[in-house]
Write a structure and sequence with these properties.
Number of helices: 0
Protein name: DUF5678 domain-containing protein
Oligomer: single chain
Organism: Paenibacillus tianjinensis
Largest sheet: 5 strands, antiparallel
Distance between the termini: 49 Å
CATH topology: SH3 type barrels
Shape: elongated
Helix content: under 10%
């Protein structure tokens, strides 16, 4: 299933509640995933991943302030 996301920009959410974003899934096997961001290369154990999210559309930011 993760093989379909190879080469795409995804967010990885971990079991402890943290996440990494704006990186590319470069390589994967049954034990590790290689994830590259602008600043680092991560080798992530598959057992520590809760979810992998592929953002298909950019969200609109809520408007802040007073409108007339």
């Amino acid at each position: 299933m993760l093989a379909d996301l190879k080469g795409q920009k995804v967010a990885v959410h971990f079991l402890d509640g943290t996440s990494v974003r704006d990186g590319v899934l470069e390589e994967l096997d049954e034990r590790f995933v290689k994830y590259r961001t602008e600043y680092q290369v991560l080798y992530i154990p598959v057992t520590s991943i809760r979810a992998v999210a592929l953002e298909t559309k950019e969200r609109e930011r809520p408007r802040v302030g007073f409108g007339q």
